[in-house]
């Protein structure tokens, strides 16, 4: 809720802070299953770091810079160099899918190379219009997501992008529930 601090408690029993609700929602669409902790309970969990926007979900920017970035695993930023590319990869409403990262949290990201081509960054979910199959983009390959894995990995339908007919990916191995830990918390490094 408003004004409450949001944390993810990791397998290491440390708490990882979400900078804002918009970042939280890229990982978890709602607050079902969240718990309210007392100050003493929170204090007993050492701070492990920050949670960045989930790779492949939304675009991010910082207030002081007009550049818009996609997020890849490892909290790596990839500059989306043109408005045309943003529209091709993220649809006509791409500019409504940007999360402003507070300046004080920007250090949690690493700036990588620009996208440089009309290819989705690793972590993006795509489907061919009219097809029920959803694919996870993994370093330029598309991996079919097993239907059971979609929910286990906490993927959200709202972040599935329509694949433009001009973009074609080679098939990679199917993404199964076995791959869940590495995909879901690829950012907790």
Report on this model:
- The protein has helices at 21-27, 39-43, 83-90, 147-152, 180-184; strands spanning 6-9, 15-18, 47-50, 59-62, 69-72, 76-79, 98-101, 110-111, 125-127, 135-138, 141-144, 160-162, 170-171.
- The chain starts with 5 loop residues before the first strand and ends in a 5-residue tail after the last helix.
- It has a five-stranded mixed sheet with strand order 7-4-5-6-8, with no helix packed on it.
- The chain contains five helices and 13 strands.
- Helix content is 16%, strand content 24%.
The helix count comes to: 5
Mean pLDDT: 88
| Backbone structural class | alpha/beta
Question: What kind of sheet is the major sheet?
Answer: 5 strands, mixed
Low-confidence stretches: 184-189
State the strand order across the main sheet.
Answer: 7-4-5-6-8
Large-scale geometry: globular
- The helix content, as a percent range, equals 10-25%
Could you tell me the radius of gyration in angstroms? 17 Å
Q: Span between N and C termini?
A: 27 Å
- Beta-strand proportion: 15-25%
**What string gives the helices and strands in order?**
EEHHEEEEHEEEEEHEEH
Count of individual beta strands: 13
In short:
This protein is of the alpha/beta class. Helix content is 16%, strand content 24%.
């Amino acid at each position: 809720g408003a004004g409450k601090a949001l944390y993810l408690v990791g397998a290491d029993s440390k708490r990882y802070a979400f900078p804002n609700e918009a970042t939280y929602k890229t990982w978890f669409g709602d607050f079902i299953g969240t718990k309210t902790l007392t100050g003493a309970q929170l204090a007993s969990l050492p701070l492990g770091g920050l949670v960045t926007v989930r790779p492949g979900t939304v675009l991010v920017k910082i207030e002081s810079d007009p550049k818009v970035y996609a997020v890849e695993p490892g909290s790596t930023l990839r500059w989306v160099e043109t408005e045309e590319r943003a529209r091709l990869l993220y649809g006509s409403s791409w500019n409504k899918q940007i999360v402003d990262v507070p300046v004080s949290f920007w250090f949690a990201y690493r700036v990588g190379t620009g996208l440089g081509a009309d290819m989705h960054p690793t972590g993006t979910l795509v489907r061919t219009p009219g097809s029920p199959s959803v694919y996870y983009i993994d370093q330029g390959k598309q991996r079919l997501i097993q239907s059971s894995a979609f929910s286990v990995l906490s993927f959200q339908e709202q972040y599935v992008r329509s694949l433009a007919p001009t973009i074609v990916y080679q098939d990679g191995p199917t993404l199964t529930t076995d791959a869940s830990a590495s995909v879901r918390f690829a950012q907790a490094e």
